Amino acid sequence: MKRFIGFVKKEFYHIFRDRRSLFILFGMPIAQILLFGFAITNEINNVDIAILDHSKDATTKEIINKISASKYFSIKQMVERESDIASVFQKGHVKAVLNFEKDFSKNLIKDHKATIQIITDATDPNTANTISNFVNAILQQYQKQLNKDITIVYQIVPETRMVYNPELKSVYMFVPGVMTIILMLVSAMMTSISITREKELGTMEILLVSPLKPFQVIIGKVFPYIFLSIINAVVIVVLSIFIFKMPVQGSLFLLALESILFIISALALGILISTISATQQTAMMISLMGLMLPVILLSGFIFPISSMPIPLQVISNIIPAKWFIIIIKGIMLKGVGIQFIWKETLILLGMTIFFIGLSVKKYKIRLE
Amino acid sequence: MSNNNVIQVDGLTKMFGDFTAVNAITFNVEKGEIFGFLGANGAGKTTAMKMLIGISKPTSGSATVAGFDVFTHAEDIKKNIGYMSQKFALYDDLTVKENITFFGGIYGLSRARIKEKSKALIEELGLESVANNLVGSLPLGWKQKISFSVALLHDPKIVFLDEPTGGVDPITRRQFWEMIYKAADQGTTIFVTTHYMDEAEYCDRVSIMVNGKIEALDTPKKLKEQFKAANMNDVFLKLARG
Question: What is the ipTM metric for this complex?
Answer without folding.
Answer: 0.88
